[in-house]
Every structure is written in structure tokens, then in C-alpha cells.
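Standup notes, structure subgroup. Blocker cleared on the zinc ion input:
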Amino acid sequence: MTAGPRYEVIIGLEVHVELKTRTKLFCGCENRFGAPPNTLTCPVCLGLPGVLPVLNREAVAMAARAGLALGCTVREHSRFDRKQYFYPDLPKGYQISQYDHPLCEHGQLRLYDGQGQYRKTVRIRRIHLEEDAGKLNHLGERLSDATGSLVDLNRAGVPLIEIVSEPDLRSGEEARWYLNALRATLAYLDVSDLRMEEGSMRCDANISLRPLDFTGSLADLPRVEVKNLNSVRNVERAIEYEVRRQAAQLSQGLGIERETRGFDDASGRTYSQRSKEEAHDYRYFPEPDLPPLVLTTEQITAWRDSLPSLPDAVREDLTAAGIDPRTVEVVVQDPAAVAYLWAAAQDYGRAEAVANWMLADLARLLNAHRRSYRDCPVPPAELANLLRLIDRGTLSGRMAKEVLEVMFVKGVTAEAAVAQLGVSQISDVDHLRPVVEAVIAEQPKVVADWRAGKEKAIGFLVGQVMKRTAGQANPELVNRLLREVLARQAHPLP
Amino acid sequence: MGFSEADVYYVARLARLAVSREEVARLVGDLNRVLDYVAKLQSLPTETVAPTFHGVERASAMREDVPEPSLQPAAVVAEAPAARDGMFVVPRILEDDTGREGGEG
Ligand SMILES: [Zn+2]
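Run returned:
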């Protein structure tokens, strides 16, 4: 690296996203996570002989809308193909997918960094619709001493879209921006749960290094595919590791082998899974059981016209509302957060203050209690009420944090939480003045010190007032009142 | 275009089929006869004909996204050679001996 890189990093991502239809892609079994094994299966998704797949209209609509939101052209004529391979979680011995006539093509996605700066546009090659495989549970403690596997086909036949980018990404960081942008767009469409840990969104990364003197086609570069990355962070880590590994190989004059690798979360390394070329020979051919998928221009136009507000437009609106770009970048990821922010801001008036409270304190509570803005126990109107209590001086910022926590945990209003905690800040002058006068009367020595120029002495007097009000007085107001009363005693009115 | 013994072994391996030497010799002959037959189509002038991808010239029918009952759990594994906890038992899989895409999530 000291001589500077003699290569360029080329990355393309393949992202599989499970669609949240009610039923599977080709049969009426429910598409649901967490049911007892094999209770959501039928002759179609079990791959029994003599059955025929029937396409789920809603899955097509979701896939097409995802394509349109990502700037793709949706084909009026697309087609399903069989991709054959043998694995116990694939009961038919083939996966119904789309090979050379995918539903959507030629899209693009704009990438922004964490500071809200636009960085680049990545082209999307294609989006196709396909069915998911089942799930294997290995017998035995470890895979290495497993004696067999148990097959659960509840997931077999669940609709997936595979989103394939062009090799336009150049670093792990760019891959992160891409995945964030992709996830945000799909979140606004509400077509998937998008949970990488649960497998409803999965990512494979194709990584190669192009020597700067290489003039051939990208397709001729040996490409390493890292499979099944289960978090955005791991996509970034796997890419960074793989770039270092390949660079080291090249610097030692060794070639890069075209292969598939896995990623080990604990060590942060990739490892070889297989390199046999024949393993990639899927013998695709048109699915004879499904006629071509034909959509009308009117249908596609109707889907395009009914797209919701998408992240790029929302980002502009939030920025125009005066919210800090870094804050915008966090909020824009989550459409429920955006809806929450607009609702609270409309009620309260200042979007920026709402956003700050959401990002700092509300986000912490949501994380700690595994909740989201969709089911936030503090409704937007109550956050607005809380902010108004601060403005009126009823609560200090520090007290408001405690009040918010009670509102969140107990699901009560701001006023009820203030009453429960007994933290209301006393900002009532008529209530405080007698206390201030009493303290001054009791502390002639401290008063004398202050009059002699010992400025710090006033702090002691404030402390005495706070003590008598059980800490609920507004300290700034107490300070002001003390000075007023002392000044009046020094220069009594005639 | 000839189909060789190596081709037969390759395709048999992809299809996870064990074939004997005698079977391979017979299959090479059979498969070449099939390919020769299909090759006859090459002699037809098709430059002006749009490719036919499907035997039926109609668009795919679609169903509404409405759940239908699944099978009873006992029925699902009733015919399985081995089952446990409602799941099919299969032999241990060697991860590096699979031709699989995707992987389990
Ligand atoms: Zn089914």
C-alpha cells in the first residue's frame, strides 16, 4: 500500500428481499415467520408430483413497485425459468426464478453519506422475482459433527426479489450507503420486513480488484462472491477483509481464484466454500408450468403513479424544514420516524427541536425496549406537550428526560408523568418570592458577604431555596428573584 | 455436434445420478440420436420467426393473495423415509459439495 494501490476495487451487490405478501409466490400457504416446522406447506411448495404453480398477483405488484421506485423499467413481457441445483431445502430440485427476461431492469440509486452529502449514483442492473428455499436445521452441536439435517419447508416458496447492482461500488463504505438507500426505499414501499438478522433481507457481495493496467472486460476479472452477509456492518467488514486479502495475493504475484466464500462474524474473515466451476452450472431453461408474465402499460403506469413519497424527496423536505443534515440522514431511513416527526412538528411548531429529541432520547428508549416508531408508546402529540412544558419553564431539560422515560415505560401523558414524578419545576414567582425572602432573612452573614463583593455567595442562597422547594424551583428564576429582592433591600423604595 | 462420454458424466454428476460404464455408452448413443433429431429443425429458415418460449400462447393467470389451508403436519412427513419433530431428516450435507446458490438465511 505504500506505493499506492495499483488496482481499483470493483464491487457489485446482490440483495435478496422477502416480500411480505400474505401467501407464498405459487401457492396459498401463508407467508409467515416463526410457525411450527412444516405447518405452512402444501403439495405445491413441497414439490410433490402433479401440481402446478399459480402466480401471486400481489407479489408481482410489490416487485414491480420496488422496480419503479428504484428507477427501473418494468417489462410488459417477462418470463420464469428453472434454475436447477440439488439441496435438501429445495424440494423440486429447481428454483423458479427469472433468468434472461427479468421483471425490472436498468434502475439507479442515489447514495448519500452519513453527513447527508450526495456521493454517487449506482446503477441497478435488474430486479427479478423468485421463490425462496426452505430452512435446514443441523443435528448435533456443531456443523462439523452433525449427523444429519432437519428440513423445514415453511419458507420454501416465499416470494423474493433479487436486486442486482452493476459493479459500480468501490469500497465497503459505499456498499453501506447503497444498502441503507436500498433499505430505505423498500421501507417506504412497505413491501418487506427488511430484517437482515431474520433473513428477510440477505446480501451477497461480488468483489474483484482491477489492476490499473488491465484493459479487458470486467467479466474477465476473477471475481470472488461472499455469500449470506447478515448485516450491513458485516457487508462492509467482509468487503474490507476481501480487498486486503486479494491485494496481498496480488502483491505476492499470486492470482485470485474465482470462488465463493463465506464470512465468519467472529474473526471478521472470509473463507473458501467451493471453487468448482461446474457448481455454477444451473442449466436454466424456461419454466414450462408458467406461461409468460404479461402486464399492461396501464397497470404499470398506475403502479408508478401510486408510488409514495420516496427517501430522496423526503430528504429535501426535512432539510427545508431546517433540520441538520446529519439528523435528516438518520430520520430519512425510517418512514415511520418521518411520519412521527411530521406529526409532532405540526403540533409543536419547531421540527428541529422534535428531531433532536427523537434522535437523542426517544431513539435510546426505543432501542432499549426493542420498539419502533410504528408502535412508539409516546404519541407525537405527547412529545409536543413535553416540549411545551420545557418552553414554559415547568420542566428543565434534565427533568424532561426523566419525564419522557416515565411516559414511555408507563404509557402515560406528559402531565401525568410530571405528576407521578413530582418533578414540576416551580416557576411561579408569587410562590417563590416568600421562600426567597425567608432565606435572605435567615442568612445575614451570607448576604453581607455577597454585598461585600463575594459573588459566589449567591450560589449558596440559591441552594437554600432549592432545598426548601425540594429541588423543584426553577434555578434561573430563583437566582433572578434573589438579586431583585437584595437590590430592593439595599435601595428601599421611598 | 457430438455428445461425448465426458458430457454424459458431467450432466449425470449435475443431476446427482450414478451411471455405469455400460449405461454411459448406451446414453451417448441415445442422446446423440435425440440431438440429431432436434438438429433437423436447424435446417428450417427461422430468421423471420419470433422465438417461441412457451407452448401456450397466453399470459400467465394470477391468483389473489388469499391464504388457503396448508396440509396437516402429520401428512407432510407421512411419506418421508425419516422424520423428527415434524421435519424431514436428511443425511449430513457437506457445505463444499453443493451447487447451491443463496444458502440458508
Ligand atoms: Zn404451499
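Discussed briefly. Chain B touches chain A through 47 residues (CB under 8 Å).
Next: hand off to the docking folks.
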